[in-house]
Amino acid sequence: MKTKVTVVGAGNVGATVAQGIALKELADVVLVDIVEGVPQGKSLDMNETAPVETYDALLRGTNTYDGTENSDIVVITAGLPRKPGMSRDDLLWKNEEIVGGVTAEVVKRSPDCILVIVSNPLDAMCEVARRVSGFPRERVIGMAGVLDSARMRYFIAAELNVSVESTHAFVLGGHGDTMVPLPRYSTVAGIPIPELIPQERIDAIVERTRNGGAEIVNLLKTSAWYAPGASTVEMVEAILKDKRKILPCAAYLTGEYGLNDLYVGVPVKLGKNGIEQIIEITLTPDEDAALKKSAAAVKELFDKLKTGAAATV
Ligand SMILES: NC(=O)c1ccc[n+]([C@@H]2O[C@H](COP(=O)([O-])OP(=O)(O)OC[C@H]3O[C@@H](n4cnc5c(N)ncnc54)[C@H](O)[C@@H]3O)[C@@H](O)[C@H]2O)c1
User: Which of 71, 198, 266, 279 sits in a 20 to 30 Å window from 253, CA-based?
Assistant: First the structure.
């Protein structure tokens, strides 16, 4: 049986994820959306791209969940994106309803799948998917840190006029304005950036990383999709190829970093079982305080969720 990934939400991010999976021939893709014609049209367009790009992955668009059965991974991008002036948190109620409904549908048909959540507010939507699916934390993972780190890597590369490939960046915490970029663990060819970039420029990079999403929303009047799509594909690839790549992802913590029962962005080892390991790194008191502040912001959202703790499927 061929590997199958279902992508729910055929909008900007969902379609970019589907295209990235096809381009890398990671799996066949089922693209699901409520808008009639859109997942079908985008899938057909991408199938017609295949001869030119030379991939043999097959895409299928649908408005129901038939055909999503036994997916290896389900990526959830369904929901409303941000508009200018909106915080990710403003999306909470509406997207909770959407993500909860989608999760119930997909896990009924793919009880062994790994859920990769993209919809915002990210950490809260991960929790909705975890509660509704009843899945163990290894199989409900959020995409945010890969994107936030990619943004920081680009800013570091631009600052030093070096290849992005030589950069590494570490961003912890919730996917919001309180995220915690860690310059000490961000490197160029293994050299921590504090040795290469003056502090005031690092501060500017950290600030721009924190506001990276809003910067694009202000330009596009909706949220980004190329980098979010590519970041999601990197996670999908790590899982499907059992790469055991260490990536910053939103993971449900049960004591790690002194945090409990919360989704927070931390470095995890991603492999065929989803989260194979949560990596704990030592934080300075300032970094720890920033992470706790970020976790408190996530907790505030969790407290507003209506989805109960009991699994509904
Ligand atoms: N985690 C991140 O870092 C990150 C980055 C970018 C975007 N996002 C989030 O991803 C989500 C999608 O963003 P986008 O730019 O692709 O938005 P979009 O509006 O382009 O696409 C969303 C799609 O979801 C569909 N949809 C809505 N309700 C649905 C349902 N019940 N079932 C199936 N499909 C449904 C819509 O019809 C639409 O096509 C947003 O919540 C956005 O905030 C997260």
Answer: 71
Calpha distance 251→275 (Å, rounded): 8
CA-CA distance, 148 to 150, in Å (whole number)?
Answer: 5
Task: Convert the pLDDT of each residue in 134-187 to its tens digit.
Answer: 999 999 999 999 999 999 999 999 999 999 999 999 999 988 889 999 999 999
Residue 83: both structure tokens together: 């508009």
Atom of ligand 1 nearest to the CA of 118: 1
Residues 6+ apart with CB under 8 A from 292: 258, 259
Q: State in Å: Cα 8 to ligand 1 middle.
A: 8
**pLDDT digits over 206-265, tens only?**
999 999 999 999 999 999 999 999 999 999 999 999 999 999 999 999 999 999 999 999
- Residue-wise DSSP of 30-55: EEE-SSTTHHHHHHHHHHHHHHHHT-
CA pseudo-torsion sign 24, 126, 259, 300: positive
What DSSP designation does 173 have?
Answer: B
Quote the Cα angle for 175-172-165, to 5°: 100
Residue 208 tokens, joined? 């721009």
Residue with tokens 């703790």: 309
Which amino acid makes up residue 239?
A: I
User: Which amino acid is present at 230?
Assistant: A
